[in-house]
Structure formats: C-alpha cells, structure tokens
Amino acid sequence: MDLGELAFAGAAEQARLLAAGTVTAPALLDLYLDRIARLDPQLRSYRTVLTQTARQEAAAAQHRIDTGERLPLLGVPVAIKDDVDVDGEVTACGSGAVSTAAVRDAEVVSRLRAAGAVIIGKTNVPELMIFPFTESLTFGATRNPWNTALTPGGSSGGSGAAVAAGLAPLALGSDGGGSIRIPSGWCGLFGLKPQRGRVPLAPHDDAWCGLSVNGPIARSVEDAALFLDVTTSTPGPAGGFVDAARKDPGRLRIALSTKVPPPLIAKVGAEQRAAVDAAGALLRDLGHDVVVRDPDYPPAAVYGNFLPRFFRGIYDDVRRLPHQDRLEKRTRNMARIGSLLSDRRMATIRAAESALAGRIQSIFDDVDVVITPGNATGPSRVGAYQRRGGISSLLLVSQRVPFFEMWNLTGQPAAAVPWALDRHGVPLSIQLVGRPHDEATLLALSAQIEEARPWAQRRPPVS
Question: Domain Amidase: where (predicted)?
C-alpha cells in the first residue's frame, strides 16, 4: 500500500493490516512521526509528540503481533486530547497554569492501551477547553488543514486537525458543548458525542457539571465504533458497536430541523440549510420516512441550565490549578462568573435537567433520529477573537455553532457526519441526534450515509 494511502486508511483498516503482517507497528508509527515533523509546524495540532515512549510501545506491540496476539487496536497510533491524563505527561489543558505531570493514565487511556493502542501524542486545545476555536497564549493557534488561515474549531481542534491531515488515524476528543462535533464538522471527519457515561471520564468525573463526555474523532464510522467497543463502560448493543455499524438500520423515522434553539440568535448559512435538505432527499431515496419537525426547545434551557453549568465548570477547573496567576485574563473573568453560582444553586439547576430533557426529547416519541445542520457557518479566521474578552468572544462565536449545546444538556448521543465542501473548499457537516443510549442507530445510519456519499477519500491541502 502507498504510504500516503496508509496514513489515511483509518484505525480499523490499519489494525487489520498490522495483524496480517502487511505493515509493522514501528513502520506505521514512523510514518506518522515523519508526517508530523513535516506538516505539523504549519498546523500545531500536537501540543507534544511522545516520540520515545511511542516507539517503545510500537516495538512492544509488534512483538505481541509476532507471537500471535490479537487485540482490536494492537499497534495502531492514537492521539489524546490534552485535557485527558497520560501517565508521566502534563495535562496542560491549553494553559501555563499546570506544571505537574499526571501520575497515571486516565481510565479511557488505560482502556485504549488495553486494546493495544500506541499513544502518539497530546493534541492542542484552547485554554481550559472554553472556546470552539483552538488558540491559546501559551501554545499558539492550531490551524485547519483545509485552509490554514482558518480555525479547525474546538475545543478538540488539535485532534480534528491531526486526523484530517493524516497525522493520526484516530483521536480522542471531549465534548461539553460541541467540542467533538465542531472540529469534526469543519475538518471533514466523523465525530461522535456518545451517551453521557458511555466512555469513562475518570479521574475527572462529572466534568463541567455533567455536560462533558469523551469520544472519538475518526476518519470513518467503523473507526468510531471500534473506539466505543474498546472504551465503553456501560453495556452496548448485542455484538458490539462495530457490528451495529455494519447492520442495515431498517426503515427509520427521521426529522429534519434547521431551527436555532432559542434564545440563541444565529443565521444558518444557505449551504448548511441545503445540506440538511439534501440529506433528507437522500434518506427518502434510501427508504426512510422523513419529515420536517423541530424539537420543543425550552427557551430557558441554554441560559438557565447549560450556561450556568458551563461557567461553574470553568470555575471548578480553575480552582484546582496550581498556578492560577498564569491564566489568560478572559479565562479568569469567566471563572469569576462561575464562582457566583453556589453549590445550592447548582443543585437546583441540575435537578431541573430531567424536566428540560424530557421536553426536548419528546420529539423522539415520534421519530428515531433528528437531523440538524452541523456548524451554522464556516469557521472563523485564526485570531478573530484575539483582542476580545471572554463574554464577547463567546457571544460572537456561538452564532457559528448553535446546534450542539442542547444535546449536552440532555446527555444523549449525537454525531457530526461529513457532507460536502462549501464554496470556499472547507468541509461542512450535518448533525445526527439519536435517542438516549442509542449510538447503535446513529452508527448504522451514518454508515449508510457514508456508503452513499463517501468522504474518507477527501484530502485537505495540508496533507
């Protein structure tokens, strides 16, 4: 196989090639290390590359392969978002406020290692994962491989840029308000926000007051399903997620919605609306029942529930940091807002989630999947918010990404599915939202779309 094709083959296919002896684990790792050395100075997708330990892990993986051992990711490099602990490495979270290395792997990293993964490096994030663009004063700006003047999104922007540019076959992301789905959409990748509690967060349980989850940013639906199979902490579908992704989804009831959840105000681009319409047409042709219907979004859900949890989550993260004086000014200001929310007030807000989620999820009494636009517009230019404060930046950038937060509040699975390139040559996506705990249907439907409209062959200019 051509080395360029191998770099973009994806995690599941690479695992098969490794098991068959077509490629060795050290050679596969060296392919990515070479690509990172050549291309990442333009992108800054990695905060740190773990060259020495990754080579040791790749050599050990090859020995296990040679002795006949078979594991789902044995020898496959995986990138880790830099809000997740890797033993012996600083979990910088995009900030200079952390200086102490983690003393053990996070649970999700332990599970990836148990499946045979080689941890290749830690990917860049905005400070404390606050914004949907990946820029920090400490580590600089991560750029989109489709157009390096633009952001890849955030906060898992380093993971998105790395997988899109062929600098990793698979990456771990986290999502507290779209942070997997936003960069996946703008980088042309499949990104899945799993059901809350599906993938372990330990030792950082209940991150952002229950809003955040860990999940995959992947080149294919199969790769994302494989990630879930090796990391899930709750029972999945019979036969596993990879098997679910291979199944015919059957005839589904699907609702199309381009309504911006109130009270957010955003103008959804014509191309993004057209993508939802085209998805509806495709799915009708594939035999599904498709209707136009909006979820019942409570007007108070974003400002009354999501945002208090978001701000309090920032405050909780900040007060655990050893060097708070090194934080960016806008991070400190946003943490101050969170400090005004008492434990008692947060308990009341958390208790209101069930009723809000029930109202939003009532649409699933009649449909199996809801489809919305992914990002409402294309990505912003790198540095667009550099001179703005935290609240100003948040208000402006939220107009680009209004379709995600609701599903962090409800906790149910949602996926960014690549659709096309916009008129500027940047990827755009649709979002698929499933019933609670029903990643299986999302994977099966996404795989059906992937077969009808393949996306994995697309290569960004920086690749």
Answer: 28-443
> Is position 173 within any domain?
yes
Q: Has residue 190 been placed in a domain? A: yes
Q: What is the pLDDT of residues 128-155, one digit of tens each?
A: 999 999 999 999 999 999 999 999 999 9
Angle (nearest 5°) at CA 160 between 32 and 264: 175
* Cβ neighbours for 141, distance < 8 A, ≥ 6 positions apart: 44, 134, 135, 151, 382, 383
* Catalytic annotation, pick one of 136, 179, 212, 220: 179
CATH code at position 152? 3.90.1300.10
Q: How far apart are CA 442 and CA 216, in angstroms?
A: 14
CA angle, residues 187, 193, 195, in degrees to nearest 5:
170
pLDDT, tens digit (0-9, with 9 covering 90-100), for 81-126 = 999 999 999 999 999 999 999 999 999 999 999 999 999 999 999 9
Candidates 45, 95, 136, 155; catalytic one:
155
This prediction's pTM? 0.98
- Eight-state DSSP code of residue 199: S
Q: Quick check: is 287 in a domain?
A: yes
Domain count, the chain: 1
Catalytic-residue membership of 155? yes
**Residue 81 bears catalytic tag:** yes
Is 312 contained in some domain? no
Query: Among this protein's residues, is 354 annotated catalytic?
Result: no
Regions in the chain scoring below 50 on pLDDT? none
